[in-house]
Amino acid sequence: MKMPLESIRRMVLICLMTALIALGAQMAVPIGPVPVVLTNLFVLLAGLLLGPRQGTAAVGLYVFLGAVGLPVFANFKAGLAHLAGPTGGYLVGFVAAAWIVGLLTHGRSKRAADIVAVFLGSLVVYALGVPWLKVVTGMSWAKAVGVGLLPFVFGDAVKAAAAVVLARSLRPALVRHVRPAASA
After folding, report:
1. pTM of model > 0.85
2. What domain count does the chain have?
3. What is the pLDDT of residue 179?
4. Residue 164 is inside which H or E element, if any?
5. What span, in angstroms and rounded, lies between the C-alpha atoms of 144 and 77?
6. N or C: which end of the chain has fewer CB within 10 A?
């Protein structure tokens, strides 16, 4: 049975985005239990470009690869133990963020929708990451917010803006080469 060309293109895009997410994770600056990474730029971009299903698939594949032992997490870390560590909530938040961003922007080409979506997607990452950081480390809420959110707000806003700009530039090429799936 021959696979349709559209399915192959979608799989390639999912794998490409997964690779970019993994590459972004290696561009890490350790500043505490949660490093500064470019991962979230590519997570948001996955949702913006690929939509809710394929964007979530790309991020989910990234998390799965790390969970089974491929060193794709920040600083070439991997394994289920890493998912249970201080950054586990952020990793789960990345999956949720890609879905939310994709859901809010899929089929829309409005800049305002993109901006709202990346803002909400980033909030979801924090909403899952900071409480997990607090629980795993035993930090107070103030300390968890101080080390797991505040140092990242400005940089994440810049990455979110970059994701919007990149998506607006790349969407025309994707539309020309990959037709949207009916159920994406």
Report:
1. yes
2. 1
3. 53
4. helix 153-177
5. 22
6. N
Is residue 20 a part of any domain in this protein?
yes
Check: CB of residue 126 under 8 Å from CB of residue 93.
yes
DSSP string, 80-141: HHHHTSTTHHHHHHHHHHHHHHHHHHTT---HHHHHHHHHHHHHHHHHHHHHHHHHHHT--H
What is the average pLDDT score of the chain?
92
Say how far apart CA 16 and CA 50 lie, in whole Å: 11
Amino acid at 98: A
The backbone torsions φ and ψ at residue 131, rounded to the nearest 5 degrees and listed phi first, read: -60, -40
What is the domain extent for residue 86?
Answer: 5-33+43-177
The answer to the question of residue 182 being in a domain is no
